[in-house]
Specification:
Number of helices: 2
Structural class: alpha+beta
Strand order of the largest sheet: 1-3-8-5-6
Order of helices and strands: HEEEEEEEEEH
Strand content: 25-35%
Radius of gyration: 38 Å
Helix content: 10-25%
Number of strands: 9
Length: 257
């Protein structure tokens, strides 16, 4: 059977309508790999594939097709998809390839035509998605890719209703490359992001310290300031003592002689 690369070359020769400026992620198939001929319809029924294993499936326009593959730390994965239309269509359509991690979180693509739109005259469409480098660890709140099972979903998001259910042929290939350990998230900053526009002057001699101001001594310097909490505390204490003495005098019983 033809591999994805051969299908992509034939697609370009036939003049398929692709998204301008979008590059296709083109992983290489593994020698002797068995072609997968089925796809799942949900996350639970996703068909398991390996890196470099070509996929060729016959389906209908409007189907949601799912595949899953294993990702290890330090790998960068690329997914390439080619959809060939079996019959003429009545209007333009938009296709989408999405990649999810094991927690069903959608992962961002750094390259590839992830959501191309083709017109009615096109005989096929090519999609691609290059994932970020899989990290060995990440914060729980972040969406960084971690090792585990990843899911690929192919679907059409916008098309004329008469084109729903038309036959299509899907070729998919997922590849993995091991990076050298460098990551864009763990690099070093070579230069400041914002240059210093208010740089200080260079001192050629040791600066002379300014003489310390002598503290003025006053006989009333130890008294608290008017309105401070110490004044109100003292006044409150005196009033409480006076109230206590008056209350005791009023409530004391007279002695019997």
């Amino acid at each position: 059977m033809r591999t994805l690369i051969r299908v992509a070359a034939a697609t370009a020769a036939a003049g398929l309508a692709l998204t301008p400026g979008a590059a296709l992620a083109a992983p290489s198939p593994s020698p002797g790999a068995t072609t997968v001929t089925k796809a799942g319809t949900s996350f639970l029924t996703a068909t398991t594939i390996t890196a470099g294993q070509p996929v060729r499936v016959g389906a209908s326009t409007g189907d949601h097709l799912y595949w899953s593959f294993r990702a290890e730390a330090g790998q960068v994965h690329e997914v390439g998809v080619t959809v060939t239309f079996g019959k003429p269509r009545t209007g333009p359509s938009t296709w989408t390839v999405d990649v999810f991690d094991g927690l069903r979180r959608r992962q961002a693509c750094t390259a590839g035509a992830q959501t191309p739109t083709v017109d009615a005259a096109a005989t096929g469409v090519t999609l691609g998605c290059t994932l970020r480098r899989v990290r060995p660890w990440a914060e729980p709140w972040s969406g960084d890719p971690l090792p585990g099972t990843y899911y690929v979903r192919l679907s059409v998001t916008d098309l004329p209703e008469p084109d729903l259910g038309l036959p299509i042929e899907v070729d998919l290939l997922a590849g993995a490359t091991d990076s050298d350990g460098a990551s864009g998230d763990d690099g070093e900053l070579a230069a400041p992001l914002v240059p210093n526009t208010r740089a200080g002057t260079v001192l050629t001699a040791e600066p002379t310290p300014e003489p310390a101001a002598e503290e003025e001594t006053d006989l009333t310097g130890w008294l608290p300031e008017a309105g401070s909490r110490w004044v109100w505390t003292s006044v409150g204490g005196v009033l409480a003592a006076v109230a206590g003495v008056v209350g005791f005098a009023l409530t004391r019983r007279p002695r019997r002689r």
